[in-house]
Amino acid sequence: MSRTYGLLAATGLLLVVGIIVSLSQCQGCAHPAKPPVAPPVATPQPTPSATQPAAKTRPAEPKPAGKLVKLTHDRLKLEYQLYLPKGYRLERQWPLVVAFGAGSDSPLVDSDAAAVEVLADEHGYLVLVPRLSKALPERDDPNRAAVLGGCVTEASALVEAVIARWSVDSRRMVVVGWCTTPELATRLATDRPGRFAGLLLVMFGGAELRKADLDAKKAGQCKDLRVVISGEDADADWFRTAGVKDVSLTRRDPKAASYFVDLPSVVPAK
C-alpha cells in the first residue's frame, strides 16, 4: 500500500512540475524578452583643419566712424589714434594711411586731425597715428640708431594689429612723415620691401635723408614704392641714388597748408 502511495505522490509531483514548465513557456511566448539596446554612438564633431580654417572673428570696432579715436595695443600697451571714414563697413577693404605726428610719440594736433578727417572721408582712408614709447633723440645722440630701430618695430606691430582688426586693403598702404619723422617714416616704408605702396615726406631741408640712418639697399628693392617729397627744399637724390624709380617733388611751402594735402598723390587707385 505504501508503495502505491509513493508512486502516486511521485506521479503527482511530476504533473505539477510539467504544468509549471508549460506555463513558463507560454508566458515567454506571450511576452518575449526585449533585446538589449545599444547605447547611442556620439557623432564626431568636425574640427578645423588646414583645408577648413576656423571662421575669423573681429573684435568690436570704435564707433562712430568719422571720428579720430584713441586706442591701446593690448600687448605693447601703446596708444594710437585711428580714424575710420564715414560709411566704413567690413564688407569693403580700405586703404591705410600710417601718419606720424610731429614726433614719434606725438598725436595729431587739432588742425592736422581736422585736415586728415576731411581727406579720409573724401577718399575713403583708414588713418593710423602711432604714438610710440620713445621720442627720437637728436641726430648726434649715440642712442639714436637703437631708438629708431625700436620705433620701427613698434610701428610695424601697430600696423599689423590694425590689419588684423579692421578691413584694410594691404595693397594700398602708405606712410606719411613730417617735421622730425621723415627718417622714421622712410625706415618703416622701406624696412620690408613691397609692404607699403607709397611714402609722403614733408621736409624742411633736402639734406635730411642723406644724413639719416637708412638702408639704401632695402630702399632700392622697393620697386613699386611711390615717393612724394613736399617742401620748400625738397630733394629726391637719396631715393634716386638708391634705385627708387617713382619719386616726385612738390615745392609746396609746408606752412601754407596741412601736410596731408598731397596724400591722394601717393595712395594707389584701386
Calculate Rg over CA atoms. Answer: 39 Å
| Count, helices | 6
Largest sheet: 8 strands, mixed
Highest CATH level, the class of the largest domain? Alpha Beta
What helical percentage do the residues reach? Answer: 25-40%
Integer count of domains? 2
Spans of at least 5 consecutive residues with low confidence: 1-33, 46-56
Estimated structural class: alpha/beta
Find the CATH superfamily of the largest domain: Alpha/Beta hydrolase fold, catalytic domain
Give the oligomer, counting copies of the same chain as homo and different chains as hetero.
single chain
Mean pLDDT: 75
Strand order of the largest sheet: 1-2-4-3-5-6-7-8
Give the overall shape, derived from the CA principal axes: globular
CATH architecture of the largest domain: 3-Layer(aba) Sandwich
Order of helices and strands: HEEEHEHEHEHEHE
The tally of beta strands, per DSSP, is 8
Cα end-to-end separation = 123 Å
